[in-house]
Amino acid sequence: MILRDDVIAWIRAYAAAIADQKDHLTRLDADIGDGDHGSNMDRGFQAVLAKLPDVGDKDIGAIFKTVGMTLVSTVGGASGPLYGTLFLQMGSAASGKLELSLADWAAVLQAGTDGVVMRGKAAPGDKTMVDTLAPAVAALRAAAARGAGLAEALEEAARAAEQGMAATIPLVARKGRASYLGQRSAGHQDPGATSSGMLFRTAARAWGGHA
Length: 211
Known about the structure:
It is globular and about 45 Å long. The protein is built from 9 helices and 2 strands, in the order βαααααβαααα. The chain has one domain: Serine Threonine Protein Phosphatase 5, Tetratricopeptide repeat, CATH 1.25.40. Helix 7 (130-145) packs parallel to helix 9. The longest helix has 19 residues, at 37-55. It is mostly helical.
């Protein structure tokens, strides 16, 4: 089971990963976007860290909703609304829960991904964060359906996320600022797909020892 304290530990780990990879994310975004994805995400998650002490006694849904609202208010560009929607929809799916099973976690991430798809009007193949989220959630759900353990399922989801992230390199962007470049957007890894892929890898690292 994934407990409330585990969720908070994962959010902290993700914030640390964003801070560590801030320059890399910015370089990716400089190739096909505004060059501010890393700094925007880092600013947002530093603000999230400041809010976590206030929600340590809340349910998991409330924690995710706080993350989402904080990101909407502090992250610039398209990333704020998209990541904000991801966590707000995750919060709705986890409302009232103090722990999550693997099936719960898969459902929570599916709700978040569905929210991102609706908000950004993006589909797999458009060279966006959906190219990471969709295969990772599919892998997680498939693992849950066959009765896999949590650690195994998290690792499979992280690998699927990383494969989806790498698969954005040859794609021509059809959404967002990168789409303005047309064919010139090919050959570059999408920064949003990269930062969302980090969600799954940090979860696998944070929770991999759980039963």
